[in-house]
Amino acid sequence: MVRVLLAGGGSGGSVTPVLAVAQALRRREPSVEFLYVGTRDGPEAALAAAQGIAFAGVSAGKLRRYWDVQNLSEPFLIVRGTL
Q: What is the pTM of this model?
């Protein structure tokens, strides 16, 4: 049995290529098992579920290229997601 961990998220643009790879693998090996790990707030949970792929959400920070008060709390979200 083949098990594959898929990861990525935050936007649909990064999720769709990952899911396309999962589809291609499933065509080659129908018994493959997937686990998708992504952000709790992104669209990846719904997109993975639509393809019957198990999902685990983690906390994730966002790197903003501009000043925002949320930039102060983001490092803590990153550490929490890592743990």
A: 0.74
